[in-house]
Amino acid sequence: MKDSHKTKAQLWSELAELRQQVAELQAAEAERQRAAAALHRSEKRYRELYENLHDGSAAVDMTGKIIEFNRAFQGMLGYSTQEIYHKTYGDITPQKWHPIEAKILEDQVLKRGYSDLYEKEYKRKDGTIFPVELRTYLAQDDSGNPIGMWAFVRDITERKQAESASIESHERLLTVLDSIDADIYVADMETYEILLMNSHMCASFGQDLGRICWQVFRHESGPCAHCTNSRLLDADGNPGGVVVWEGHNPITRKWYINYDRAIRWVDGRLARLQVATDITERKRAEDEIARLKDFNESIVQNMTEGIVIEDAQWRLSFVNPAAAALLGYAPEELLGQASTTIVPPDQLPIV
Fold first, then answer.
1. How far apart are CA 250 and CA 151, in angstroms?
2. Which of helix, strand or coil describes residue 315?
3. pTM above 0.70, yes or no
4. Comparing C-alpha atoms, which of 148, 135, 59 is closest to residue 101?
5. 119 close to 131: Cβ distance less than 8 angstroms
6. CA triplet 71, 40, 84: central angle to 5 degrees?
């Protein structure tokens, strides 16, 4: 119907409908602009976050060509932006890692969509090699087809240097401990697991790291009755002083003087450090001295002649039974008494 044949009411109705459509279009456009602005803000925040990550991040296509990266990733490698865009992840990875990483991508990333955290090395523009830690993810299109991979990458140079320094320090400590002529070991105070043994200890009991101390060192079925663990911590549960004790070992059949103390192990747990010195010969000498003393005392005690010994202050320090009987005393009555008890004062110069 031509407009000339429409009634005024029809024209007003169509105008109102047109205005409604215009308003809806304007509202839709405003919503689209708001959504676009929100998307832009979100993308900007993501880009700022992505660019300011301390760890590197990069994406590659399925040929391995690098197609996206952040500043941290670029800073690790020392290449310009254009130079990196002409690289593949294989170009920046030393050759020895290629088969290892290929297996990780095949067995993990392509099968389940991501890898375990793994370590490898990168090669900088100047040729230096440095260690990295990364996890790789698979990128897919809407149909689930692989279109690339991306990863977060961390430079672990400092951590590796710290680990190396710790290993060197540990090796130096072992060198020192191995040079000591004593059995030295460290055991977890809760589990009794052996954490360290010096070579002297290994020679006595064998290399048994990871086993239980009371099993290895004494063939016990449970913690030793003389275990000092409960005496090595202070009231707050922190390492206290040294506990010194002597004991006989049923395996080596030797006597030891033991110096026990609690320490914090490298992982923070409480452990017992024991330094044990062989005192078997000393104990044998002490036993021999005691035996000879008993033998000599037995001879003196059973002699029919009286024997009296005085100290530097003229006090009686020994009286055998024969002398006591001769003087009419019990031996214990005379010990510690002045010599004048049995010798007249005017006779002392003669005695």
1. 58
2. strand
3. no
4. 135
5. yes
6. 25
